[in-house]
Every structure is written in C-alpha cells, then in structure tokens.
Write a structure and sequence with these properties.
By secondary structure, the protein is an alpha+beta fold. It has two domains: about 240 residues, Glutamine Phosphoribosylpyrophosphate, subunit 1, domain 1 (4-Layer Sandwich), CATH 3.60.20.10; about 210 residues, Rossmann fold. It contains 18 helices and 23 strands. The strands form six sheets. Strands 3-2-4-1-10-9-11 form a seven-stranded antiparallel sheet. It has a six-stranded antiparallel sheet with strand order 5-6-7-8-12-13, with helices on one face. Strands 17-20-21-22 form a four-stranded parallel sheet, sandwiched between helices. A hairpin with a 2-residue loop joins strand 12 and strand 13. Helix 5 packs across helix 6, helix 9 packs across helix 10 and helix 11 packs parallel to helix 13. The chain is globular.
C-alpha cells in the first residue's frame, strides 16, 4: 500500500525570514529580542527565541509580531548567555505555530536549536528519502530536514556532521544554530541570503542585516562569507569552508525591497543603492510631469533619486498608516487587498489635477498596484506615470520569495503595455537590468547577483517536482 504524501510541501513557499544570534552576553534573550525587533520587516508571522545557559536550552515562540510574542516576564524566564532568534514568514511550511522557529531538539545528550532564512530546492526529495528510512517529522519546514541530516552524521563530530548534512542540500540558506555552548552561523555556497557578524564589547552577534547591530549598538565586523561555517565558543570565532567553491549569487531583491534602507547587505548600503536606482531611471525615462510621488515606503528612496536627477519636485502625496504591515508579505491576496486600502491614503488637495510620476520598487501580481492607481484616479490625478525600480518579474523564485509560481507573476503573462492597460496608467516604465546592476555596484558580465526572477537563469537546477510547480502553475 502506498500512502499519499502527508505534507502539502510544494505549493506553500513564501517570503524569507530574519535570524539573529548572540554569544557571550549575560542577558542574551533580551539582546536577541531587540535584534529581532529591528528585523521585524523580514517576517511578521511568528517569532521565537531559544536560549542556552550552558546546561539546557529553553525556548519561547508564538504567532505574531516580536512585541506580541514576548513580554518582560517571558524574557526574564529565558536566562542564558547564548541565544538564537527568528522572525518568520513561511518559506517552506504553512503558517502555524508548529512551524515557528527556532526549531529545538534534544538528541544524543545534546540540545540543538536552529533558525533558517531561505529555501531548499531539494527539500521535498530529501524529506521523502528520510521518511522512507524511518524519520518522523514534527513540522513541514525544510529547516527540520536539515536537522535530521545533521543528526544522522553526528557520529563524525559536529563540524563534520554539518558539512556532510549541508553537502546534501541545494538552495538558499543562511542558518544560525546553537548547542549548549556554541553559536554557529552558516551561509550557502552561493550566498543568496545575507548574514553578517558583529561585536558588542566581548559579545559576538550574528544577524541577517546590519540594522540589528545598530539598535543594540554593536559594530559590524564583516559578512559571513558564502560557503562559510562560523563557530563561536569561549575561544572566540573559528571558520571553515567545507563546500566546493561556487559562483556568488546574492539575491538582488534584498537591495530592491527586502532589506531595511539603513542596512548594508552584500557590503552595499541599501539606501544609497535605492537612491541610485531612481537616478538611473531618470536617465532612462524623461517624463513631463508636475511632481514625483513614491508609493511609501518601498518606493521612497528611488523616488528621491529620480526627483533629484530629473529636477521635478518630490512630494509625499500618499500617506502611509504605519500600523499596517507590509502588503507584499501578507499571507493571502484577500489580506493584501484590504491592507492596501487601509495602508495608503492620497493627499487629495495636493494631487488633484496634477500629472504625477509615481515610483514603486516592483510589480509582482499587479492587483495591489491596480488598487492604488484606482484610488489616485478617484482623488483627481490628471495623469499617472508609474516607474518601477527593477525589470519586470517574469520568473518565479524557488529560493525563498513570495512569488513561487509563474502564474502569480503578471509580467509572465502580459507585456508591459498590457500591464499598463490592466493597472490603468498613462505610461509604465521599468528600470533596465543593466541599470539595476549598475546601481548595485556591478557592471561586469560575471556580476555576483542572482537575477533569475528577471531572466529565468537559475543558479541551482530545480528538482522535477519543483520545476513543474514553479514554471507550469
């Protein structure tokens, strides 16, 4: 008798997460809380912290924002000098408490906690193989797949177990792990997702973005390198590189959208990159208009760059309600559409009768943008010209972004002119790929960025099931 797969694995890939780790602080949990608070933009679905006091690992996690999951009493109960934290928007695995991270296990007289940012393209294949060999899974996360692989190789020692386990996986991952006395940071050989190392006094910290260091007044040391396994214990940090060298493929959408503008990722300042995106759009598109308006907050910095380069006045003519989360990473389309109406409201007296250049960071499904444009039409705008600070997204991302199937992408089904007509614009322009790469600091043909969502050129081949799910749906 052949049982059906119990986990709806493939259809549930969404946006990435944020990770934070601490070694050597008397109140590691509270430090991790503030680190996660700074990384809240990377995931609003769940949050968790696991803390070691040298004897055992305690954890607390829940659904919701960091400030909702943790309070003073909760944090006071998490005593220890070593911690791993995570904010999540589901990559692989559905939205439920059992899938909140860090994932904590006790195996072979040792505790392990692991937090993952990214997505494995062969997780489905590995999970089926492990289950056939008797493995029992508690969650639907690919993070648990990694932990099973590590556990099966611990007879070789932890360092070798990590190397052997991750040698079997393919995809994007920035991992933070801890045992009772070690903090471990790992970045995949292509370096898809950011991960950086910092220090606060004698305390070492690891985070998805440098903005987490700024809040706790830690200073940035360096990025964790692609393919690096960084182990921090009482002797300090030590690195090894167990994987074959791979071509860097940093996710360029981090610079366009994901990362906070006050962060540096991939050794690039996000604010300055986004501003340069706008500068270069002004070279590619000259529009006769009255003013430049961003769709806040994602379009703010490219709009500033466009206004300065074009000479048009910059206005904040669309006001954001900051008590509403990021619409792109809302779990369902119904929630996204409602959030658009609640989130943004035009200043009618400013825009009535005006010709507007609107700046946005991307158009994914098109429905959110259409709703916004309809609102501006109702507010009396005379002309609406939209500029997008990246090329059209025509291909799905299997590496942990919330457009995992081709059918979700409006640019995969429609031409630019058809998108313009669908949204209801007077004109629509996208920044060229050449302009995007120039703004990101790379002009060479062998640039270090993953641009597969624009070109369809995937750095890691997709498994057959995933290829069908991504490209044929």
């Amino acid at each position: 008798m052949v049982l059906p797969d119990p986990v709806p694995y493939l259809p549930s890939r969404r946006e990435e997460c944020g990770v934070f780790g601490v070694f050597g602080h008397e109140d590691a949990a509270k430090l991790t809380y503030f680190g996660l608070y700074a990384l809240q933009h990377r995931g609003q679905e769940s949050a968790g912290i696991a803390v070691s006091d040298g004897g055992c690992i305690k954890e607390h996690k829940g659904m919701g924002l960091v400030s909702e999951v943790f309070g003073e009493e909760t944090l006071d109960a998490l005593k220890g000098h070593l911690a791993v934290g995570h904010v999540r928007y589901s990559t692989t695995g559905s939205s439920m408490l059992s899938n909140a991270q860090p994932f904590v296990v006790f195996h072979g007289h040792e505790y392990y906690a692991i937090a993952h940012n990214g997505n494995l393209v062969n997780a489905y294949e590995l999970r089926r193989k492990l289950e056939a060999e008797g493995a029992i899974f508690r969650t639907t996360m690919d993070t648990e797949v990694v932990m099973h692989l590590i556990a099966r190789n611990l007879k070789y020692g932890l360092d070798e177990a990590i190397a052997r386990a991750l040698d079997q996986v393919r995809g994007a991952y920035s991992l933070i792990m801890c045992t009772r006395d070690k903090l471990i940071a790992i970045r995949d050989p292509h370096g898809f997702r950011p991960l950086c190392l910092g220090k606060l006094g004698d305390t070492f910290v690891v985070a998805s973005e440098t903005c987490a260091f700024d809040l706790i007044e830690a200073h940035y040391i360096r990025d964790v390198q692609p393919g690096e396994v960084l182990i921090i214990d009482h002797n300090g940090p030590e690195s090894f590189f167990p994987f074959d060298t791979a071509e860097p493929k940093y996710c360029i959408f981090e610079l366009i959208y994901f990362a906070r503008p006050d962060s540096s990722v991939f050794e690039q300042n996000v604010y300055l990159v986004r501003k340069k995106l706008g500068n270069l759009m002004a070279k590619e598109y000259r529009i006769d208009a009255d003013m430049v308006l961003p769709f806040p907050d994602s379009g703010n910095y490219a709009a500033i760059g466009y206004a300065q380069a074009s000479g048009l006045p910059f206005e904040m003519g669309i006001i954001r309600n900051h008590y509403v989360g990021r619409t792109f990473i809302q779990p369902s389309q119904a929630m996204r559409t409602f959030a658009v109406r609640v989130k943004l409201n035009p200043v009618r007296e400013l825009i009535r009768g005006k010709r507007l250049v609107l700046v946005e960071d991307s158009i994914i499904r098109g429905t959110t943008t259409k709703t916004r444009i309809h609102t501006l039409r109702q507010a009396g705008a005379k002309e609406l010209h939209l500029l997008v600070s990246c090329p059209p997204h025509r291909f799905p991302c299997p590496y942990g972004i919330d457009f995992s199937t081709k059918g979700e992408l409006i640019a995969a089904r429609k031409s630019v002119e058809e998108i313009r007509d669908f949204i209801g614009l007077d004109s629509l322009g996208y920044l060229s790929l050449k302009g995007l790469l120039r703004a990101a600091g790379s002009m060479s043909r062998n640039h270090p960025y993953c641009v597969a969502c624009f070109t369809g050129e995937y750095a890691i081949p997709l498994e057959e099931e995933l290829r069908k799910d991504c490209l044929e749906r």
